[in-house]
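Now for a specimen:

…
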Amino acid sequence: MHAPPAFDSLGLQPAPLRAALPAWHARAGVERLREIAVGVAAKGGRLAALWGADERDRGEGFALHLALVVDDATLWLAVPLPAGRPDYPDLADVFACANRMQRAAYDLVGIRSGAADQRQWLRHAAWPADVYPLRRDFGLENWYGNDVEQYRFVQVAGEGVHEIPVGPVHAGTIEPGHFRFSVVGEKVLRLEERLGYVHKAVDKLFESRDLVAGSRLAGRISGDSTVAYAWAYAMAVEGLAGVAPPPRALWLRAAALERERVANHLGDLGYLGNDGGLAFGLAQFMRLKEEWLRLNARLFGHRYLMDYVIPGGVERNIGRHGCDEIAAQCAALAREVRVLRDLYDDHAGLQDRFLTCGRLAPETARLLGVVGLAARASGLPLDARVAPGHEPYDRLGVALQTQTAGDVAARVAVRFDEIAESLRLLEAIVEGVPLGEIATPFATVGGRGRGLGRVEGWRGEVVVALESDGGTIRRCHAHDPSWQNWPALEHAVIGNIVPDFPLINKSFNLSYSGQDL
């Protein structure tokens, strides 16, 4: 397989990865890192993920890893760093979303970028400043107590400017995150987020698990995206092992992924109606979501589809009767959602709250590297489901749902449109799903290997990069789209009033757990 011209022209000679989507791997010296990053950005490419690794037990120092995407093809770039001074140049001026990823890589592995912003991101003084949990020599004996930390929020000065701290503990049941508003009156001048409160050492928990057992952990990284994570992880394992899932399994995976997408959009539309003052919308969408989840439990074995996608295929079959139930539910839901959309569109009070609120301009979204639903609402046609060779989506044909206004109303409209498209896809899936086996067994994989998975979850693309050694996981990095999109929320709220923040925040509905790892 020949690499795309965009990668070939970088002078890397990338090697193809066995992956469901077009993917290559290459190594480059740290002195070429910025040149390569600038070259990818110049071709319209973007940074999909960034992470670090400790290779000292192999006599190779440390490594910086990047997943770069150009024209739906992914380049996994490995950059060796010396053990004595694992430094590399800052990439945040090339890819704005790199800032927090670089800070997290330092907290976990101790590789340092040349950025001016060296504040901790995940550590929260939960372990000493000179301890790095993802180093190979880290053990419980290294975890010898908390440190003291004073996080330096950016200060906004001026007459009448004051700060409003919100969180990290919130009044609702959402996960913890701190939001520091700088305001004049009720108008927001700046928002700065502080996340990482639900860091749970997922990357460390992956180490030394066997490849199949890792699937259960992957599906629990972010509970509302379990199918997306499990499928991306399965893609990585299957590429590493050279295993092809049966066609029926791929179609059933797509059915589960679209059901996950619909469930989350139903919930968000209900909460957005409620935050806009229409409690009736919340009641109706929660009713529809509950009916949807109950059919999930009956057919797939779990309301939120946990552990349904496994390496090699899926965990259980869906028979003809189950397919007919899905088709009937899709038709009924489509009718009810159309009625509710008319209600939302015609409700003057709701539209007054939605229109022009929390606007993220297309150019800002592009510069920030925004992905997924938020990107499509700002006019960026990004969706991993349309990547060439993505079974079964290349057969089904995915119609991208985009808006250009980039406000709350646009993000609401994309949700409505994506529900309709997902229902269409589901009806096509249950009608055309091929007969056959639902899983391909595979033996333990010996030696070294690497695999890459990329799946368009309901929030955006999930990336899983996996390295194995002797049949066990050496390093697994799972990347949530919220890494790219949390900084966009800080921009979208500027110029709005503080009471609109819950509505703007919900219109993005980003993950704490998936980003904090």
Notes: The chain has two domains: 5-142, 202-516. The CA atoms of residues 270 and 282 lie 4 Å apart. The radius of gyration is 23 Å. The mean pLDDT is 94.
